Amino acid sequence: MSRVAEDVARPVPTRADAEPGRRPPAFVMVPAAIGLAFLVLPALGLMVRAPWRTLPHELTSTVVLDALRLSLVCATSATVCCLLLGVPLAWLLARSDIRGRSVLRAFVLVPLVLPPVVGGVALLTALGRRGIVGKWLDQAFGVTLPFTTAGVVVAETFVALPFLVIVVEGALRSAERRYDDAAATLGASRWYTFRRVTLPLVAPGIAAGAVLAWSRALGEFGATITFAGNFPGRTQTMPLAVYIALQTDPDAAIVLSLVLLGVSVLALAGLRERWISGTR
Amino acid sequence: MTSIGRSDVGSASPDGDTTGSSTMTGTVTEPATVVGRPSGVDAAMHVRRASFELDLRLSVAAGETVALLGPNGAGKTTALRAMAGLVRLEQGHLLLDGVVLEDCAVGVRLPPERRAVGVVFQDYLLFPHLSARENVAFPLRARGMDKATARRRADEWLSRVGLADRVSARPRELSGGQAQRVALARALVSEPALLLLDEPLAALDAGTRIEIRSHLRRHLSDFAGAAVLVTHDALDAMVLADRLVVLEGGRVVQVGAPADVARHPRTDYVARLVGLNLFRGRAEQRSVSLVGGGSLTVAQAVDGDVFVAFSPAAVALHPQRPTGSPRNAWQERVTSLEQHGDSVRVVLDGPLRLLADVTAVAVAELGLTVGAPVWAAVKATETRVYPA
Fold first, then answer.
1. Dist. CA B252–CA B242, nearest whole Å
2. Which fold has domain B6-116+192-275?
3. What CATH architecture applies to the domain B278-387?
4. Mean pLDDT over residues B305-324, rounded?
5. pLDDT tens for each residue of A14-31
6. Distance CA A234, CA A146 (A)
7. The pLDDT value given to residue B325
8. Residues of chain B numbered 124-163 and touching chain A (CB < 8 Å)
9. Which residues of A touch B127 (CB under 8 A)?
């Protein structure tokens, strides 16, 4: 919306023109401060309790490095899958007038509300060796997904896809659809329009969706452990390693958590506020 | 001879015999009678919308500009979008230079991207992520032209519209008038057979509007294809179009040359909208010598070829030669009287052919009847002058 308004109405009003607001009232400030503390304290706890002395040694252990590498590879692969499947899905939800669109959207959002463990069980019944599609995959191509690295990617894609679809759909909705009309009258095929007009216009939204999906995939636990298991070096991602370490070596768990925290903060730094809002 | 409206102006100007091209296609209410290779638009469009039903028969010859004029919600933009292929016809057909773009009877429909049509949208819809050059090159690139040639052609067109120095500007860095010219270049670069303009001047401020209007007029007279202009502004329509088609509630209520429509409005809407005294002439400071004789004193000092416009309400009628301030006074004769709402439109002939809107009381007091003599006066401050 804001994109269009800005392009039509020049000059663009800037934020600096807005009058500075009054000081926020106490009934806002107090809960907000508690809320902020609630969000920051656990991260602080991790920092305080971290075994800083043995940290370099712990960080370079095979378990940590393997898990970190696997996590990054799988989360990135899952994000690529999400982009390939999610952008067209978002386009369908935002731009087409197919029937039952609200039902379709509800289905897309299911993994968002489903407990991830349930998602894992559901994936097993669909793509497991004896699942409704998995059986056929196994017989026809000899492909088995459960308890493999590919399975991790499948599980992560399953839980991360809705995040990408929601964000990209929002971006497509707020992007001016008439640019597509304009492109068509200029002789552009639908594919050319999609590539040269639609995608560039919603690129910030797609980037935001990708970062959210990547973060969600990185932290994925329930569906992964259910569908792909917990094999070090193959399916044991960082969250799984944290969980296992917590039962045997709490210090190692803190170190692993600290690494995940660092990676997430880096991702957040890349995700500017303008991306979250889906505008420039 | 005096001149009111664009068609008189057109025949007096070097840029074309406009009446010749409109007789070739026949009138809007009859099918085009074309001998030899058909050129231009032949359309019978029927589209149902929530608030109205568009039912429009339209022919536009190559080289001709037709203005679709009407109030908001009259179906003008729907008609335009239907010609571009963005709205589906429910009945009827659409031919462009003899090519069937759409024919409901045989189920043929070309999508927008396969029609030789260029569109200038009301808010231009320049792609915000592309530079002016890339915007203009877009239709060429989309049709598969190589990058270097497309860019060269885009640059040529940008200098034709006077924007050679703005090729790398993004749309948001352009002024309204510049954006309009980029949009025009983008619509014309692929040499369409039909140019569609949706309220092309509506988004501009008054000052820019005058400049862009005469700029657009030059490009329209250079344009070889058919052009259809949608507007609710009478002045734009009269200056830019050879023929007016007035739409109300999705239906044609009047068709004709701008001067004819202005002189003989058929509905109150048309009377209010199109009623405009428009002259062309050569200005020297505050005095304009009109094409066809006579002169007008204007408030604005300008030089060169100009249009002078003033509303019928600005024309005051007097029984004797008026004394005092108005220097524009002519002895005229009443040729017709028509009641429109609260006012009466008086059509006058004499040194200038004029329209005057007066109250019914004034008609009685002046004893106005057809053939009666009367003095008409216009204050210089009531006139609008702009370059032709």
1. 17
2. Rossmann fold (3.40.50)
3. Beta Barrel (2.40)
4. 86
5. 444 455 667 889 899 999
6. 12
7. 59
8. 125-129, 138-139, 141-143
9. 179, 182-183, 197, 201
